[in-house]
Amino acid sequence: MVPLLSIVLATLLAGTVATFFAGARARWAALATSIVFLVEVGLLFVSYPGWPGYSGSLVPGFAEQESYAWIHIYWMHVNYTVGVDGISLVLILLTAILQLATVVYSWTEGKRPAAYFGLVTLTCLGSFGVFVALDVLLFFLFWEAVLVPMFFLIGYWGGPRRRYAALKFFVYTHVASIVMLVGLLALVFYSGATSFDFASIYAAARGLSPVVQVFLFLPLLFGFLVKFPAVPFHTWLPDAHVEAPTGGSVLLAGLLLKLGGYGLIRWAVEILPEGFSHVRPIVFGLAFLSILWGSVLALSQRDLKRMVAYSSINHMGIVLLAIGLDSSLGLLAAVLLMFAHGIVSALLFMSAGTVHHTFGTRDIPAVGGITPTTPTLSTLMMAGSLASLGLPALIGFPAEFTALVATWDGLGYLVLLPLAVLVVTAGFYLWMMQRMLFGPARGIPAGAHDVPAHEGMAMGLLVAVTVLFGVVPSLLVNVIANSPVKGFPGT
Amino acid sequence: MDALTLAAPFAPELVVLAGALLVFLLDVAGVRRLEVGGAIASAATAVAFVLVIADLGFAPLAGVRTLGAGRIDLVPGAGAAPLYAFSSLGLVFQGLFLVAAFLVALASLGRPSTERGAPIFYGLLLLATLGMLLVAIASDLIFLLLAIELTSIATYLLVGYTRRDPRSLEAAMKFYIVGALSSTLSFFGASLLFGAYGTTNLYAIRAAAGTVGYPVLALLGFGFLVAGLAFKTTLVPFHAWAVDVYDGAPSEVSAFLAGGTKKVGVFAFFLVFLGPVLFARAGGPNPFSGAPFDIGPVVQVTLAAIAVLTMTVGNVLALLQKEMKRMLAYSSISQAGYILLGVTIGTAPAIAGATLQVLAHVLMKTGAFLVVAAVASLGVGPLIDDWRGLGAQRPALSVAFALMLLSLAGVPLTIGFVSKFVLFSAAVEAQGLYVWLAVVGLLNSALSVFYYGRVLKTIFFDPAPAPRATGAVAGAAGPPPLAVGGIGYARAAAIGIIAVAIVAIGIYPQPVLGPIQSAASHFWAGGP
To which H or E segment does residue A342 belong? Predict the structure, then answer.
């Protein structure tokens, strides 16, 4: 068997190193890396539907598995174990698309380009690792490997308050990571797992009593919710998103938040189902709070980027709600939502970035009627906004529709709450479009030009993805449903 | 036995001693070139390191050192009371000490060669190293304390070696007074133990404790020993001297003190407390049968309290520092607390974890102080704020420093993460009180992220001070421009070796973990 995952990892690693040392050609190295990465992910996808005929693996249901001894000391058996299922595969696809889009969008980055593109590639390497790791320590290692480059991306290339934002981001998420690590280690020790592998913990955790499961679940929940972020652990996000450079915001919103969702599904919900079922009220509470709080705050923002940042909290709240439903449909919706939000928020952050350097401000009331001047930008922004508010035929629709159906299944009339908030979400996007894109022109500097070619290409790529999976969501759904998770046909 | 056979087991110690004598002789003979001393010191430590490592079983050199002894672990039979014994854990520590000495010797070649008394520096360095090597093979209290004394006296002189600098002299004086006090405490403790058990041999004390138990005299003796060794290991509340000394000493010497000689105290803790006192932990033969009461918990709670205090106080005070060296000194104190956790827990995995943490600390702290020395040689001031914008001006040096700080903070892919992982896992495995020790340790490492992160932010994100960035002429107000030229090949090599080792071991620690694991298990099961 070809160790495809290790080959991808090696590609990204080599690409990162090459980019760091490529000097003026760094962007080409980064571009080459992302294209190869995308092709390899395509191969992964092509070989995946062959499942569930797959056999000979260590964890039934995970494809492309590899396992090598890594740290073996006393009873601690830490392995390099990787594998993918449908859930991770979809998020890996997201990683590859966003890496390519970010590199293309930032093509003219002039401030230390080698370091910039190297850090972007490194962030994607870390995310890929998180999605394929099937060993606690390997998972944590990649988890942290995302944090450090993002700290530098925000802190060096960010906006005026970047230093504060970077430090806040680092401390917040690192503390959360440590709590999560404590939870994971406690899980290993209390379950009596024979190694740090997912399979061994998964099997060992069956024997834990519900009370123990609840106590083990809570630190994991906290660690992942900070990354989500769920209200009230969200305060790092507006600062980090607003101050980060556009490429950093794209990766933050598109990838880093997904790490929280993925971690919650894979390392908490799957392993500790009993504990999860007792904690669900808390999860619902925080989910509803995030949905409401995020949309209300988004509605009240003047800064375009800040508005998109708060809408991320709102959308991730729906993801949390979908996970909390603890049904196969809810899980499917959560993964679809994460993919959709990853693509769409990236598109919106890119729009905000382009607006900022075209018009010199991101203040929504200050700029208006830009469509005649910058028709392409306006079109792309509109596509992003419409996808975000859930227009059919765009990726946001199947995701949100599934989520609402799943909520109806699980919670009955409580579905009215997210439904009502969806109206608010639609409201702030439409209101923003009305003010910025249409109406009388104002605040447009002389000589404002339309979106630069490379930025247009990056955003166009994302729009294409939005349309493709919006029209044919089964491309994703069939893969996700093949995962070895409870209730899916694959199990 | 002929002289050669007798001397063979001591080959590493003899090489270091010969190096020291050679440096002093050349100085007398008028050869005062810095490079000569540096070359001798680097070569002697490197050769000794190879000899030590060879004994740990790395083919094809295995067994060279133990020609006379026949095997590494000379566990004596009943009635034997040797002054020294080779334990594999001792050999691991010898290796660590030699790594620190080698790196410092190599990097010190970057000091200005016009400095007065330069070769003496290397002679003293080698003498201190010799003392450390002897500590690692001690099996008798008096031998142990005398070896520590040899190290201490050499380092007093090293701290005051830049005679023209009043801060250096003040630090030396302070170091000397505190050192003398701690030696007195240790020797007093040893004499009380002799009074209680009629021997100073650590095996014999253990055997005697099994039959006699722990009279008050012995408890007092252990108490004084804890205090004396705690001074050497910079444990709270015996830490106050360390910051002033690390701050005042030349940075290379600070590197040696924090990265090297401090670990002497750690090994002494292993020898004294794991042997006779903590041996009752599950699996070991119980020396407490017949004792009036189980002394183990008392000692463990005391050590645990010291460990928690040391971690916390070191971290909190590091948070408040404005000077780079003082921040590093406090962070070094907190790291000593982590290491003491291993002694407190006392299981084989914990010993392995503590030993790994010692190795990590050798690399990180030696490296950090060497970077401070290199940066100071570029004309950057002592305050953390003076390092603003260094990331853009000296990217390679800054990245190496960043790796060291990230490792100190315990970020994955660095050795600092692996060592903390093993240590805290061992604590959780030991259960009970130890789980809480792990929690405190983790909270502390979360806290430490704050000040390491702040330094990273200063170096990489803050703009350089104006006169330096614009390259304005010196003499104007504000900090002087960066010195032209590099930091020297020797320094760069030492820092580079450390940075690579931190990441390499962080990514694949097994080659280092293997020997440490077997050494720790062996030590736990039967070592002195």
Answer: helix A328-359
Per the rule left: phi > 0, alpha: psi between -120 and 50, beta: everything else, B464 is beta
Domain limits of chain A?
4-479
Count other Cβ atoms within 10 Å, centred on residue B239. Answer: 24
Q: How far apart are CA A129 and CA A140, in angstroms?
A: 9
Sequence letter at residue A168: K
Residue A17: its H or E element: helix A4-20
Cis check for the bond before A398: say yes or no (omega within 30 of 0). Answer: no
Across the interface, whether the CB atoms of B352 and A74 are under 8 A apart is answered yes
Interface test with A, best of B355, B421, B434 (most A CBs within 10 A): B421
Q: Which SS3 state, helix, strand or coil, does residue A64 take? A: strand
Task: Name the range with the highest mean pLDDT among A360-364, B184-188, B423-427, B454-458.
Answer: B184-188
Cα A479 from Cα A85, distance rounded (Å): 8
Asked whether B430 and B347 are in contact (CB, 8 A), the reply is yes
Whether residue B434 contacts residue B345, with contact meaning beta carbons closer than 8 Å, is answered with yes
Instruction: Confirm or reject contact between A152 and chain B (CB < 8 A).
Output: yes
> B362 with B501: CB under 8 angstroms?
no
Asked if B447 is an interface residue toward chain A (Cβ–Cβ < 8 A), one would say no
- Whole-number Å distance between alpha carbons of B514 and B122: 33
Rounded Cα gap, residues A464 and B153, in angstroms: 73
Percentage with pLDDT > 70 across chain B: 83
Residue A9 belongs to what H/E stretch? helix A4-20
Predicted model pTM = 0.84
pLDDT, position A14: 94
Lowest mean pLDDT among A94-108, A141-155, B456-470: B456-470
- CB distance A419 to A382 below 8 Å: no
